[in-house]
Amino acid sequence: MLPRPLKQLGQHFLIDTNIVRKIVALADLSGQETVFEIGPGRGILTRALCGVASRVIAVEIDRQLYEHLRDHTRDCANLELHHGDALNFPLSSLPEEAVVVANLPYYLSTALLFRLLDHRDRCSRLVLMLQTEVARRLIAGPGSKDYGVLSVLTQVAAEVELAFHVSAQCFRPRPEVGSSVVKLRITRPGLVPPAQEKVFRLVVRASFAHRRKRLLNSLRDEGFAPAAVQAALARLRRSSDCRAEELSLEEFVQLAEALGQPME
Ligand code: SAM
């Protein structure tokens, strides 16, 4: 018997095969690729992926679901099912150019996305179902209320497309929030040189840490020297009154380059 869905693990299972087809089509698999799936659940997406991918590696945290799926997918010779937390899965063991396809557990979607982006050298694209609110943040640009750390850190690493929305009726149990599918195509090289990434993340997080404050004050509060910030803003032809949400990706890259490290 199938175990009852656990709300705390974000278990909203897809029941609409048309949506499954659309997700698989969006992944645009060649037949030679390895797919990494987070949270296979009852396996509706997993089975479809096994039909078109060369290999599917899936990790499920719920032991009962994992055992149920293992026992019911013995016919899927190209499936490697793991029991565990995707946050601890050794992503560096994935083959290069893997394709990530997942209906993510919403309680963990941003943490999982950041982790996947940290290991983007292993993958070429990601097709993810997540909350519409998070999808909007992923595609937001300067001036939008949704523009923030998630938008900037994702868009410097990938081209983001909001592909389609999914009705709550397509899941059991139904989620209380809207759902959307996004596609992220990893860009190589990304906008930020690898050696600069740490500082870049620090600057972006510090910039948005106090949304209502001026960028100058937010960065000062996070340890950056006001004179250096002022000089960097002047180089960008930005006034010292500007706020983080006004800056484009390219401006954040230049700001991080100019600021280097925060003061001790
Ligand atoms: N893929 C299935 C589908 O589309 O019907 C299930 C999707 S459901 C939204 C999310 C799945 O992720 C659940 O099976 C849940 O148990 C699993 N999950 C939750 N947290 C997880 C974690 N940290 N690591 C791996 N799987 C997790």
- First CA to last CA: what distance? 58 Å
Report the β-strand fraction as a percent range: 15-25%
- Summing up helix and strand content along with how strands pair, one would put the structural category as alpha/beta
Task: Give the cofactors and ligands.
Answer: S-adenosylmethionine
User: Mean pLDDT, nearest integer?
Assistant: 95
Q: From the alpha carbons, calculate the radius of gyration and give it in angstroms.
A: 20 Å
Q: Report the principal-axis shape.
A: elongated
H/I helix tally: 10
Order of helices and strands: EHEHEHEEHEHHEEEHHHH
Q: What is the number of beta strands?
A: 9
User: Main β-sheet: number of strands, strand sense, barrel status?
Assistant: 7 strands, mixed
Strand order of the largest sheet: 4-3-2-5-6-9-7
Helix content: 25-40%
Low-confidence stretches: none
Can you describe what's shown?
- Strands 4-3-2-5-6-9-7 form a 7-stranded mixed beta sheet. It has a two-stranded antiparallel ribbon with strand order 1-8.
- Helix 2 (about 45-50) links the parallel strand 2 (about 35-40) and strand 3.
- Helix 1 (about 15-25) crosses helix 2 and helix 9 (about 225-235) packs across helix 10 (about 250-260).
- Helices cover about 35% and strands about 20% of the residues.
- The chain is elongated and about 65 Å long.
- It contains 10 helices and 9 strands.
- The model has no long low-confidence stretch (mean pLDDT about 95).
- The protein has helices at about 15-25, 45-50, 65-70, 110-120, 130-140, 150-155, 195-210, 215-220, 225-235, 250-260; strands at about 15, 35-40, 55-60, 80-85, 100-105, 125-130, 160-165, 170, 180-185.
- S-adenosylmethionine binds next to strand 1, helix 2 and strand 3.
